[in-house]
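ingest -> validate -> predict -> emit
validate: passed (alphabet ok, no gaps, 222 aa)
predict: started
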Amino acid sequence: MTLSQTCRLLALNSTIRKDDTYTEMTINCRGTIFKLHKNIVCTQSKPLAAAFKGNFKESEDSTIALEDDEPEIVDIMVRFLYEQSLDLEATETNTLLLLAVKVYVIGDKYDIGALSELAKNKFEELVGPAWENPSFIRALEIIYKQTPDRTLKDLAIKVITVHIDKLLAKEEFTDLCKEIGALALDVLKATRESGNKKHDPLVGVVLTCTRCNGERIRNGFW
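emit:
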């Protein structure tokens, strides 16, 4: 399929999403209704597809209730399923950083790997400048409580290490470290490693071994 054909197909999907004439399934998220197409949704999400199999209530009336998710985040997920793109706009309740984290979480929850990957890239782009924003602390809380892997954790810890002195002066950051032991441990490990590299007198030193005719030893390791 050529690029122009792909673009036309995605444009068609976007049009289809806005017209519920031929929809076969419904997502009800806290009263917000999404009329969708099974072939679009279920081919990209095994958990959502599984809800329509077997003797589940969802399979009988073709309606899935997502009471634990935010309508705003579900809407972003739905748009991705149809358009294969991730366009985030900050709102009163969610900064761009929080949106990226929450979209990563919902992508992982419903096994939509491509969505999580785009959200990860967006988070990586935003997290560096966002460490001073109060939403950074909230983002950390979500990351450590709701993401099972290291992807966003490692990106966040890199930023924390750079700004650790100023972050430790923030009560909300230290309170979160007290609440979430895994975060505190990651911060401790990262700052210790950073400190060792900074103060190790052998860092940057290149030694030459006379026995191996120029074999070099870097940073104190053979």
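DSSP finds twelve helices and five strands in the chain.
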